[in-house]
Amino acid sequence: MLRFLKKDPLSPAQIIVLFYVVAVILSICLLSLPITTNPGVDWSFLDIVFTAVSAISVTGLTVVSTVDTFSTPGTFILLFILQFGGIGIMTLGTFFWLLIGKKIGLKERTLIRTDQNQSHLSGLVYLMKQILTIILLIEFVGAIILGTYFLHYFPTWQEAYLQGLFAAVSATTNAGFDITGSSLIPFAQDYFVQMINIILLTLGAIGFPVLIEVKDFIKEKSKYRGHFSLYTKLTTITFFSLMAFGTIVILIFEANYFFADKSWHESFFYAFFQSSTTRNGGLATMDVSEFSIPTLLTLCFLMFIGASPSSVGGGIRTTTFAVIILLIWSYSKGRKHIKVFKREIHEDDIRRSVVVSFLAIVLWFTAVVILTRSETFSLMEIMFEVSSAFGTTGLSMGITPELSSIGKIVIISLMFIGRIGILSFVFIFHRRLEDVNYHYPTERLIVG
Amino acid sequence: MLRFLKKDPLSPAQIIVLFYVVAVILSICLLSLPITTNPGVDWSFLDIVFTAVSAISVTGLTVVSTVDTFSTPGTFILLFILQFGGIGIMTLGTFFWLLIGKKIGLKERTLIRTDQNQSHLSGLVYLMKQILTIILLIEFVGAIILGTYFLHYFPTWQEAYLQGLFAAVSATTNAGFDITGSSLIPFAQDYFVQMINIILLTLGAIGFPVLIEVKDFIKEKSKYRGHFSLYTKLTTITFFSLMAFGTIVILIFEANYFFADKSWHESFFYAFFQSSTTRNGGLATMDVSEFSIPTLLTLCFLMFIGASPSSVGGGIRTTTFAVIILLIWSYSKGRKHIKVFKREIHEDDIRRSVVVSFLAIVLWFTAVVILTRSETFSLMEIMFEVSSAFGTTGLSMGITPELSSIGKIVIISLMFIGRIGILSFVFIFHRRLEDVNYHYPTERLIVG
Ligand SMILES: [K+]
Ligand SMILES: [K+]
Q1: Nearest Cβ partner of A328 from B355, B368, B427?
Q2: ipTM
Q3: Which of A358, A359, A433 sits opposite B334 (nearest CB)?
């Protein structure tokens, strides 16, 4: 791998894929260790592969109960895989995006410190250190808060802090795994735990460049004002707009259904949490299959969009969605170029967004068609599972453990492709991304 | 309308919408006449509106049984509306596309004979005459063949030729209405009737410019060779590729299901006819709800794409689909421009295709979400109905007559938007399409 990076014989897309293949194989080895599982647990190789891909891609779909399957050392191994998967995703995502020349701003350019005299590797190491620091800091604070709070939930302090640590890591990496045995359903009435979780999963899913810019903003407030990059503005607005949209739609659609017998604050938190979790968290405070079909379709749509790029999340990404919306808007206004926040979006980013979206739709549709043949579940359950796997969200209407072998293989493939990015998948067969000639100055966006 | 066309105060999009609104109102009046319906028939105003929109948009979805509701004069009134709808669609589609400067080739430029000295109106009249001649000729030949053949199906020659005429008009205009009471199911074993129907609906759905070019090709064979326009090549290849794709997929998906007890030639014709009919015909030789879900999803996809532009059909159109496929292909090859048949596809056409596709997906999804709340049918039945209405195909799993009022209004809106074109709908609010500056020479396509 070092040799590859130095001599650069592989394209960025190929390195990403190679990274994930190696990571998945290592995870399979770790999960196959006897100490990982509780005594008496006997899971199939396919289930181990499924769990490995789900963990590395921080999706959170599970074919086995995490709490019943994993021993205490196994739980730490799983935590390590989630951590590695989450940070790997963020690092590689940011790194290759910077590497292929798509700077988001002057500040970010120094992030990987690559100039003619430095190898890509030192840039990668430097970047990973930064990301690791930020993520571990967030998780540490999260674990302390949750662990301390959990002292009145669990009998021993060890269990409280183990639960707190697992919850913080799972939320920050948007992994969606749980060791409660039933996601966050036990905390359905505990708005404090929910708010902490929403904050952690938002920090993980909003994109690393945003975190850096906000950090810089806080550090040097006076100088920074108004200098957020187009990327940060667009992705953050989209991120929170989708959260708000989801909350409102769920509230409306379920008013006379799931929320019929709930108080306003219960309804609000159910809607708010389930909307937020589709950004990529994958945790849930309820059994989502209790929602009615219009709501479930909306959740599919939200999961399909997913998180921001250069984050721990999947899906077509918030920027891609924003560019598509702006494209439609500009076109209907008869404009040839997309202008937003006094900037123009680059032609290549538009094209990339469009291709990513269409490929994602093709992939989604193909997977749904295959599963409607291989499985006996309802169309809604299948569409939900496919959206969740592609978006690496990890929500499920409960069919994951009962999937057929073909079904599991399809979901594994979706999580894998959803993770490496659909364009990386397309570009595997190219030696390197072809260079593009820029014809006019524009500010670049991350897409897909 | 004459004044509008001469003085040009309305945009093409506004004229198209105005035309359809007037046409629908006139159709409602005609259908409300006492002589239209059989004695004792009492249908609601919403059902009349539904039938009027379905007929003018030549969709063919029906909330009432055509054979039970319509008297013999009523049948002729319906035929007239279908004819008017089909020809109006083809004329307006071709006319405005030529008018906004999108010539398909040297030959076609003379079609509307508009130069600085002539008004648009004379071009429109000239074009409509040509289209009328071609369509009536096709229908006449079709009616003679089918009517004569029907002599051994029906007791009297009058009924045989009435059935033949209705079948020929319904097939050529891709209207999908039937006066057999059960579409083409009575002819499920009659491959001759099916082949004639497939030919007629293909001639209606393949696009008027293609018909003209083929006519010219036949007339002056030696001179014309190899000079088909990019539009004709692309649209025709896509059209027949989709037909073949659908046939193969249906054969594979239903091999162990609907076709389990059928002979190879029965299976082939069921697959071939049902695939062809999704191009826009809307007739069926079987109850499509007998297909399994993977097949039904594939039919949804095919109906969503629909027919070629400047034809009697709807959907996002074959060219739009072809451009999207070529865009993905070019992008994955790292190419900046789409090159096909030694031509480059214009940037504006690509953008238009993309916007049309996304808007269509948004519309489709929104309609499905609304219907899953307003109706009690399965998700599959609703998705099928919505795809059929948007594509103005007219196939149904049988839920149309049982739709709620909200459901009917949604389906009416879809048929209307599917017909006027999703971009016309967007452009209603503009005075006229803004001019575009061309930067490099390319050959133009019709999209959406
Ligand atoms: K997740
Ligand atoms: K039709």
Answers
A1: B355
A2: 0.88
A3: A433
Give the whole-angstrom CA distance, residue A392 versus residue A412: 10
What one-character DSSP code corresponds to residue B1?
Answer: -
Instruction: Give residue A110's identity as a one-letter amino acid code.
Output: T
Residues of chain A found within 8 Å of residue B253, distances taken between Cβ atoms: 373
Backbone φ and ψ for A37, nearest 5 degrees, come out as -105, 160
**Length of chain B, please?**
448
B37: three-class secondary structure by DSSP = strand
Backbone angles phi, psi at A340, to 5 degrees: -150, 135
Please give chain A's pLDDT, 448 residues, in tens: 444 444 456 666 777 788 889 899 999 999 999 899 998 888 899 999 999 999 998 898 999 988 889 998 999 999 899 888 888 777 776 666 665 544 444 344 444 444 434 445 566 667 777 788 888 999 999 999 999 999 988 889 998 998 899 999 989 988 888 877 777 888 888 899 999 999 999 998 998 878 878 887 887 765 555 567 788 888 899 999 999 999 999 999 999 999 999 999 999 999 999 999 998 888 889 999 999 999 999 999 999 999 888 788 888 989 899 999 999 988 887 777 787 777 788 887 888 889 999 999 999 999 999 999 999 999 999 999 999 999 999 999 999 999 999 999 999 999 998 888 787 777 766 544 444 443 333 444 444 3
What are the backbone angles phi and psi of residue B343, rounded to the nearest 5°?
-130, 160
Task: Give the separation between CA A264 and CA A279, rounded to whole angstroms.
Answer: 23
**Res B5 pLDDT > 50:** no
Bigger pLDDT: B281 vs A301: A301
According to DSSP H, which parts of A154-220 are helical? 157-172, 191-205, 208-219
As a whole number of angstroms, the distance between CA A323 and CA B184 comes to: 46
Q: Are B316 and B304 in contact (CB under 8 A)?
A: yes
From the CA of B62, how far away is ligand 2's center (Å)? 11
Helix (H, G, I), strand (E, B) or coil at B153: coil
Q: How far is A332 from chain B (nearest CA, A)?
A: 6
Minimal Cβ distance to A301: which of B293, B301, B365: B365
Residue B429 is predicted with a pLDDT of: 62
How far is the C-alpha of A282 from the C-alpha of A171, rounded, in Å?
9
State both tokens at B124: 């429109």
How far apart CA B24 and CA B29 sit, in angstroms, is 9
Judged by CB atoms closer than 8 Å, whether chains meet at A334 and B433 is answered as: yes
Question: Do the chains contact at B301 and A365, CB–CB below 8 Å?
Answer: yes
Within 8 A by CB and 6+ apart from A152, the residues are: none
User: What residue segments make up the domains of chain A, in order of their start?
Assistant: 10-427
Burial grade of B303 (CB within 10 A; 0-12, 13-18, 19 or more): buried
> Chain B closest CA to A328's CA: distance in Å?
6
Cβ-count burial of B71 within 10 angstroms (0-12 exposed, 13-18 middle, 19+ buried)?
A: middle
Residue B1: band (very low, low, confident or very high) from pLDDT cuts 50, 70, 90: very low
Of A293, A365, A430, the CB nearest to B334: A430
Closest CA to A281 of A423, A168, A409, A408: A168
Torsions phi, psi for A225 (to 5 deg): -45, 130
| DSSP states of A134-170 | HHHHHHHHHHHHHHHHHTTTSSSHHHHHHHHHHHHHH
Taking CB atoms and an 8 Å limit, are A327 and B427 in contact across chains? no
Tell whether B195 lies on the interface with A, counting CB pairs under 8 A.
Answer: no
What is the distance of C-alpha B188 from the center of its chain?
23
Q: In angstroms, rounded to a whole number, what is the distance separating the alpha carbons of residues B167 and B157?
A: 15
DSSP character string of B161-228: HHHHHHHHHHHHTT----SSSSTTGGGTT-HHHHHHHHHHHHHHHS-HHHHHHHHHHHHTHHHHTT--
Q: How far apart are CA B411 and CA B53, in angstroms?
A: 10
Chain B residue with Cα closest to A430:
B333
